[in-house]
Amino acid sequence: MKGIIVHGGSGKWPQEKWEAAKNGVLHAARRGYEVLEKSGDPVEACTKAVMALEDNPIFNAGTGSVLTLDGRVEMDASIMKGSTLEAGAVAGVENIKNPILLARKVMEETDHVLLAGEGAMKFARAMGFEFYDPVTEDRRKKWLELKKKFDKGEAKLPWHRMQELVKRHPELLSGTVGCVVIRDGEIVAGTSTGGVFFKLFGRVGDTPLIGAGTYATEFGGASATGIGEGIIRVVMSKSACDFMRIGVSAPKAAEAVIDIVNSTVKLDAGIITIDHTGNIGFAHNTPTMPVSYIKEGMERVYISPEE
Ligand code: ASP
After folding, report:
1. Is residue 292 in a domain?
2. What residues have CB less than 8 Å from 188, skipping those under 6 apart?
């Protein structure tokens, strides 16, 4: 049995970018599924799908990541293999092209699970990751606009009022990327992000935290998106996997954790899931979340409907 689901971040996509976001998730799902069909390796499939999303500047991960308060990019990513609970993650990495690849290196080449900041960068260079500037013109322009307001005292401190900020500027949140794949019972999940726009330097969200942004067991896998400060507190991806462990299907597990978010931390969130029987699910409490999935035997690839 083979299946893959990818997301391009919960939030509210501006109309003019929605079509590109949909094409982006479609391309990434196809890219990952191709690997499942050719080599069959689910870790490689998840990596390739997330890389396709990181390389697409429309999404807030890798190239096109959002900028911090001081105008830099600090990226987070993680990957996890369900059968063995092996996991790798990086937090606050700068100037590399594909953080998901570095997270995978942590999983496969070290005895650790999470490397952060300078140490993670030292490891990246040792692993042969070259210098790469992921800042796009569009993101720099948005940052400059907000910085001007901020300097005049017209922008409220976003990191204290994230939910309000996102309500006023819904386009600022959408764009984190994630993927869950299954191949013959082996489930792998991965997530990558630039974090939240205008975040305080050093801020780490849910994405690199195993259990919050990404989790996988032999019963299910999940990748989350939304305001990390809420996702961390409900340990969202692990919670979804716990539901799948006791027999809840992937779609119901996704809905259940969004219900938990809505009744507790009440912040924006979305999630994609696959359970061990191959059911695929997703849910979000935001207006949109571009999603695409392919499952063996499906006639057509699923792609989010029009907004
Ligand atoms: N979850 C990410 C973070 O808080 C952001 C997102 O999903 O858009 O860093």
Report:
1. yes
2. 42, 43, 45, 46, 79, 80, 81, 82, 180, 181, 216, 221
Number of domains, the chain = 1
The C-alpha angle 54, 180, 205, rounded to 5 degrees, equals 60
Report yes or no on 179 lying in a domain. yes
Percent of the chain with pLDDT over 70: 93
The preferred substitution site among 162, 177, 206 for testing ligand 1, maximizing ligand atoms within 8 Å of CB, is 206
Average pLDDT of every residue of the chain: 93
Q: Looking at residue 239, which CATH number applies to its domain?
A: 3.60.20.30
Cα(11) to centroid of ligand 1, in Å?
A: 10
Q: Are 235 and 212 in contact (CB under 8 A)?
A: yes
Pocket of ligand 1 (CB under 6 A): 9, 60, 173, 175-176, 193, 195-196, 205-207, 225-228, 231
Residues with a catalytic annotation lie at 176
**Structural domain of 284:** 2-302
Q: What confidence tier does 138 reach under pLDDT thresholds 50, 70, 90?
A: very high
**pLDDT at 301 > cutoff 70:** yes
Is this structure's pTM higher than 0.90? Answer: yes
